[in-house]
Amino acid sequence: MREHVIVSSTTDSETTARELAAQAVEARLGACAQIVGPILSVYRWDGRVQADPEWRVEIKTAADRVAALVELIKQQHNYEVPEIIATPIEGGSAEYLAWLVEETRPVDR
């Protein structure tokens, strides 16, 4: 996996999306998060095709923080099987990517 990653998930409300984003950043598992929505998701669940509004949370993080971030999302999510997808960042502003790593490091106190 590349050094920098975007972890995305979808939720059933803007409030839930904001909570997941805030928890990830507060725990220093993500440097920042964007919330996109509402979007319309079409999917099969319990043998039926369904369509529901959702909000996507996109969290920028360092690769070595992905596993812990995935666990946080699983623990806090209200879906039985939440969408959690990690996509490597292939490149970008060196300054931004350095900031991303710095913000996902534990703070020495």
From TrEMBL:
SUPFAM superfamilies: GlnB-like (SSF54913). Pfam families: CutA1. Transmembrane segments: none annotated. InterPro entries: Ion_tolerance_CutA, N-reg_PII-like_a/b, N-reg_PII/ATP_PRibTrfase_C. Gene3D superfamilies: 3.30.70.120. Belongs to the CutA family. This is Divalent-cation tolerance protein CutA. It comes from Amycolatopsis thermalba.
